[in-house]
Specification:
The complex is a heterodimer.
Chain A (H helix, E strand, L loop, with lengths): L9 H4 L3 H10 L12 H12 L2 H5 L1 H7 L6 H26 L3 H8 L4 H30 L22 H5 L2 H10 L14 H18 L3 H11 L2 H14 L4 H9 L9 H14 L6 H7 L7 H50 L11 H11 L1 H7 L6 H5 L6 H13 L4 H34 L8 H15 L8 H12 L2 H31 L5 H28 L3 E4 L11 E4 L4 H29 L1 H8 L5 H14 L11
Antiparallel strand pairs in A: 1-2
Helix pairs in contact in A: 3-12, 3-16, 3-17, 3-22, 5-17, 6-15, 6-16, 6-17, 6-25, 6-26, 7-8, 8-11, 8-22, 8-24, 8-25, 8-27, 11-23, 12-22, 13-17, 13-22, 14-17, 16-22, 17-21, 18-19, 25-26, 25-27
Chain B lengths: L1 H17 L5 H30 L8 E5 L1 H5 L8 H18 L10 E7 L3 E6 L11 H18 L7 E4 L15 H47 L2 E2 L2 E2 L11 H5 L2
Antiparallel strand pairs in B: 1-3, 1-4, 2-3, 5-6
Helix pairs in contact in B: 1-2, 4-5
Classes of the chains: A mainly alpha, B alpha+beta.
């Protein structure tokens, strides 16, 4: 009944259970393989890796645009059916085989090494651009230590007669983001040169990352005490502050008002699945590495459930906090809009102040429209609707650097809130970067790119320097466009392929029976029916469906990007432009190389095996001697299952 | 009112030169009536004259708009005739401050077209010739010069005490020599570099200590052998180094 693909030689490549126990007791003294100081460090590192910027700026947007409270239903269902099983799988396989991602997949089958290489490429590409976002966060953080925040007002133009026109037409926050931070060019082709201030921030971001990973998990384990806990503290502070602001509750209500008709829309389920998948940082290889530093009898099942729950809770919590602030901003905008209209009416008709208020505005407008229609027309009054302001839902960098910063300028004591907010974003991103870099460094060491004699400080240093240099692409004038290109194509499709191959590899190549036995050895009981069904059928099916739909939508749509062009007709709205044709080569490299490395490595290994097959044959012949017979009896006793003496159950 | 008294005095002088003692009683009555009529005319005529000078969209006048409730909320005072008088006095002060030679008075500021918004128009007449208006540009200069004082007199701001047509001068932004972000950047980078160097140095020292520990163990054994200590037992005699490499020759 159980489908099991042939996998000869698996036993020789992996350590048996007895050997694992021996290793556990022996290795306790040696410092050969890194180990976690305590369970807290491990849990905080995994939580930090999973909880990232996406929880803060992608989930609230999805929640609000897909029917508010109703979005929780597909999100929670897919969290349980897709997120938790994949997480448990990665933890268990890492803990059992005690190697990084490349080592694990080569151990399961040499042809599967491509999965590890693909993980490394994806982690590398994401590290490159993710740290640029950290650089942007650092820039805003450095600029928050001023009494008046620089994005709260437009600067004066050259001859001090008025405000800068680009800023006047858009808004101070837009101007600060697009002009003073990015200095963005109107087109991805025009590269605009390196922006020196962003280069400094990029260098500082990589420097801070380097000091945290300089000795591997020895330093990372200490850093996560701060980077994983601080975001929760700041979110709570913002929640309390947000709830005392006017209009915050209307934001929260708007976020969570359920619209059950959205559940019939397949895009909702697709987005929920994609969000769960990307939010868990699966298929990066970092989680496998982290769990391989655990002791063998660590309870990985419990860990998987706890971390999934924490991740889900953080998404909902962050969404609530963000939307209290967005509700406040929307109410502020609405009040300003209405106030402007009322002032226009008072001034034109010379009515005493207080005659027209928010409550009787509509009545007064109607009566005036009846008596002086032309005058009212000439005033060009704007229509003010709170819901339109609330549903100006933004995601990604727009939410953090435009919408939220604007809301902060309207709060009293703005610099404090700004510093807190950007420190929180920095910690969220930094803890995710730890996992990304782990997914790059460990495979590089396994591949033998660096000589074994080099200390890990040097390897980490060289990797950071090289990534920093390549990351200079993203601090040019057109850097923002390159970043969104990398984000949409480099970080989406390859991960789905890798995750699918992981599941198939473990369940059908490694063998679900062997996997069940391993888990029983490690945590003391066999995984129950839920895990069996999800690992074998449900999760791979969900992966496959998401991958197919994603692929079809990406291939069908013409790739467009939104450009900030002060000369365009409907400035300040972003201009939609098509990518130039040479971008397609880059897209192919980003999405294709990790994806194709899975089959290509398999083919390469197969060919190498074929041409060197003669050497293998010699190993298989054994001399039939008495000595060999003695060994046979030893092997017979070895094969009997051993009840583990130390059932830690941690 | 000033002009009325002038006219009555002149007319009175004219009457006195004409009449003799005989007509004094009759003319006195007629004088009285004429004066009274003139007085009435003056009362009507003077404002009428002023009205010609100050009107809505007057070429040399400015419209003022005051938003008390927006500025002061609960503490807003009532806008009445006294406040209007205060405004005239403030404007006269502004004119005096700008044209330092000329003495402007409250009468030189003429207000009209008051609305309940609170808004009104005003013109400024010259102190020497009350029919002559001060040109718009000069009034603007005077207002700009004393804008801050005028605002503070009424506890208002540029936004809530508006002179339509006179735009407030933009406050020049303070540009510090070193941008503040560079200072924070310097602090952060300094701390991080110091940390990196400290960690690298400490791992180097750790490595050296380990290596030293291992070589010391090896050297100790040889030293002990040469001194004649084997397995911790002191042997008599000296150790013949000629036999140390014996092992080499016995190998095949």
């Amino acid at each position: 009944m159980r489908l099991q693909l042939p996998n000869p030689g698996l036993e020789d490549r992996i350590l048996s259970h007895e050997e694992l126990d021996k290793l556990e007791t022996e290795e306790a003294g040696r410092g050969d393989r890194p180990k976690w100081d305590n369970k807290t460090q491990y849990m905080l590192t995994c939580v930090g890796f999973c909880v990232g910027l996406g929880n803060v700026w992608r989930f609230p947007y999805l929640c609000q645009s897909h029917g508010g409270g109703a979005f929780m239903i597909p999100f929670l269902i897919l969290l349980v059916l897709e997120g938790v099983p994949l997480l448990h799988l990665e933890f268990a396989i890492g803990q059992r085989l005690r190697k990084g991602s490349l080592g694990v997949w080569s151990t399961i089958h040499p042809y599967l090494a491509g999965v590890g290489i693909a993980s490394m490429f994806v982690s590398l590409m994401i590290s490159l651009y993710y740290n640029t976002i950290m650089a942007w966060v650092m820039w805003y953080l450095f600029n928050s230590f001023q009494e008046t925040l620089p994005w709260s007002q437009c600067p004066l133009n050259y001859n001090l007669t008025g405000l800068v026109s680009e800023c006047e037409q858009s808004s101070p926050v837009d101007y600060f983001w697009y002009r003073e931070t990015l200095n963005t060019t109107p087109d991805i082709g025009a590269n605009g040169g390196l922006q020196w201030w962003m280069v400094l921030c990029l260098v500082s971001a990589w420097a801070v990352l380097y000091i945290c990973i300089i000795r591997g998990i020895e330093t990372t384990g200490k850093a996560v005490y701060v980077t994983s806990t601080l975001p929760y503290v700041v979110l709570s502070i913002f929640l309390i502050r947000g709830l005392t602001l006017k209009g915050s509750l209307s934001g929260v209500v708007f976020l969570f008002t359920p619209n059950l008709t959205e559940l019939t829309n397949p895009t909702t389920w697709l987005d929920a699945g994609a969000q769960v998948f990307y939010s868990f940082s699966i298929a990066f290889g970092g989680l496998i590495s982290f769990s391989s530093y655990n002791s063998v009898h660590n309870n990985c099942e419990q860990d998987a459930v706890i971390i999934s729950a924490v991740n889900g809770f953080t998404s909902v919590y962050a969404a609530t906090v963000i939307y209290t602030i967005i509700g406040f901003r929307a109410t502020e905008r609405f009040d300003n809009c209405l106030g402007g209209n009322i002032l226009a009416l008072l001034n034109t008709f010379d009515l005493p102040e207080g005659n027209v208020t928010e409550s009787n505005y509509d009545q007064v407008l109607q009566s005036l429209n009846g008596t002086y229609p032309e005058v009212i027309q000439g005033l060009n009054l704007k229509t003010c609707d709170l819901n339109t302001f609330l549903s100006e839902g933004v995601e990604g960098t727009g939410l953090a650097f435009i919408v939220f910063t604007e809301a902060i300028t309207k709060m009293p004591v703005s610099p404090v809130w700004s510093v807190l907010f950007f420190i929180m974003l920095f910690c969220l991103g930094l803890s995710s970067m730890f996992g990304n870099i782990e997914g790059v460094l460990v495979p590089l060491q396994d591949l033998g790119v660096f000589p074994k004699s080099w200390p890990k400080e040097a390897i980490a240093g060289i990797t950071c320097v090289l990534c920093c240099l390549v990351g200079l692409i993203f601090v040019q004038g057109s850097g923002n466009y390159w970043l969104s290109l990398f984000d949409s194509y480099g970080g989406s499709i390859p991960l789905l392929i890798i995750a699918f191959c992981e599941m198939v590899g473990v369940v059908y190549l490694y063998g679900i029976d062997r996997f069940n036995d391993d888990i029983e050895f490690m945590i003391g009981h066999k995984p129950n029916l839920f895990w069996q069904i999800t690992w074998r059928f449900v999760s791979p099916a969900i992966m496959f469906v998401i991958f197919v739909f994603y692929f079809i939508t990406k291939v069908q749509e013409t790739p467009m990007y939104k450009a900030w062009n002060p000369e365009s007709d409907n400035f300040p709205t972003l201009e939609e432009k098509e990518y130039p044709t040479w971008i397609f080569a880059i897209i192919f490299i980003l999405a294709g190389i990790p994806g194709l490395s899975v089959p290509l490595t398999a083919i390469y290994k197969c060919l190498r095996n074929r041409c060197c097959k003669k050497d293998n044959e010699f190993k298989q012949d054994d001399l039939n001697t008495i000595a060999k017979q003695v060994q046979l009896t030893d092997e017979a006793t070895k094969n009997k299952p051993d009840i583990p003496e130390t059932a830690d159950g941690r | 009112m000033h002009c009325c008294s002038h006219i009555i005095l002149l007319f009175g002088q004219a009457i006195c030169t004409v009449g003799d003692n005989c007509y004094r009683a009759v003319t006195f009555l007629k004088e009285g009536m004429l004066v009274w009529i003139l007085f009435l005319l003056c009362q009507v005529g003077a404002p009428a004259l002023a009205q010609d000078l100050c009107q809505r969209d007057a070429p040399n006048g400015y419209k003022v708009r005051i938003s008390l409730k927006t500025a002061l909320g609960e503490d807003a005072y009532e806008w009445n005739q006294s406040e209007m008088f205060f405004f005239q006095a403030t404007m006269a002060f502004a004119m005096r401050r700008h044209f330092q030679m000329e003495t402007y008075n409250v009468d030189n500021i003429i207000l009209c077209v008051q609305t309940s918004r609170v808004s009104f128009w005003f013109v400024v007449t010259s102190p020497d010739n009350t029919t002559m208006l001060i040109p718009k540009a000069d009034v603007e200069k005077a207002v700009r010069m004393s804008r801050h004082r005028i605002n503070n007199a009424f506890l208002l701001s540029d936004r809530t005490l508006e002179f339509l047509g006179i735009y407030p001068t933009l406050a020049a932004t303070v540009n510090p020599d070193t941008p503040p972000w560079l200072i924070v950047f310097g602090v952060v980078i300094g701390a991080v570099c110091a940390g990196i160097i400290a960690l690298l140095v400490s791992s180097l020292l750790q490595k050296r200590r380990k290596e030293k520990g291992m070589t010391e163990d090896g050297q100790d054994e040889e030293d002990m052998q040469v001194k004649g200590v084997e397995n911790g037992i002191n042997l008599d005699g000296t150790y013949n180094r000629g036999f140390t490499d014996d092992d080499r020759f016995t190998k095949l």
